[in-house]
Amino acid sequence: MALAQLPGISPRHVIGASALGALFEWYDFFMYGSLAVLLGKLFFPPGDPTTGFLSSLATFGAGFVVRPFGSLLFGRLGDLLGRKPTFLLTIMIMGVSTLLVGLLPTYGQIGAAAPAMLVGLRLIQGLALGGEYGGAATVVAEHAPPQRRGFATSWIQITTPLGFLLSLAVILSVRLLVGEAAFTAWGWRVPFLASSVLLAVSLRLRLRLEESPAFSQLKRARRLSSTPLGDAFGNRRNRRLLLLSLLGITAGQGVVSFTIHFYALFFLQHTLNVESVTAYLLVGSAMLIGTPLIVFFGALSDRIGAQPIMVTGMGLAAIGYLPLFRALTRAVNPHHPQPFDPALLNGPLAVALLTMMMIMAAMVYGPVTARLVDLFPTEIRYTSISLPFHLGNGWFGGLLPLIAAFFVIKTGNIYAGLYYPIGVCVMSILVSLIFLRPKRNQA
To answer: Which of 21, 28, 52, 367 is most solvent-facing, going by the fewest CB within 10 Å?
Structure first.
């Protein structure tokens, strides 16, 4: 890969510093999702498991709801002040808020103040993550030659499943080390507190990072936008592109990504009653197998374009989710709604089915950054790619577990929640094919 070479900084350092920081923030953000079932019991009133579970999912979704607002706040700063100082700020905010989650007292200790503080910190995490993606993606994209952006930016995309896998690995290790009783009592705090190590390493790398060449060139030429939000939303063409990129690209990408990242995990634990360690191992194995394909599909998009790959991935998801989840039930708990019996688990088949979902996610996630970068000009790029990405992932994707669980509870059909991601995928395919034309290799 040929990235733009700057004095004193290597191309690998540009990707490494950006990707490691993004990995750290996804690890922090996903930690809550990985522990949502347990945190629902610790931070919400006892006595009604269903209400506690829905409250926990709502708190999980709250962090996603505010991500678009974080993208506006930090996107504006990134287009005004620069990419580097902005995503240094976001990583600090995320690190401190995650550390504080690990120190929070539970509902049993202080009552209603516990969920209030948890929600507050979750909202702060969402704001920080809203600014992180745009910074990391923009820096890497602006260091890479246009014809290699799919490959270069896919290393930012790969940090999402890796962050999720890291959160699962740390949680599983602590569970096995201290035992289930101790983990429920205090061990759940360790993964949150351990994030301080990643924060220190990420900060050190990012402090050495230079500003992106494209932004520096605009700054020297005095062509920076003084009102990036106004330029992004005041211009009719840009407004149209923002809306189309949301409905035709990131909404579908968001639901496909979060179906495997979180809904599959919740489905195994809460619907099929699989104990947590087994559920983590099944989903983690599938993600470990499928994650390298994110880079493969990102590189492939440099050759054939992002749109056909993403549309195919969303199409496969729309067609395949119902049969895949039905087959997953038969492989994991064939006598559902009876209790889960480990002796009846067909582990290899379950991993294979989950891996198919991960492949679909890789097809839509690998090329998405390069697709968004090519739609918007440099002077408003941080703002413009961040907003549709976080609306699609934060609202359409992040609220998927809550919406799907609500449908399941209301209908009594354990597969009813899948109609939501299927419908969103169909919408995105139609919008993409009808209104969005491939536009590649923009500087």
So the answer is: 52
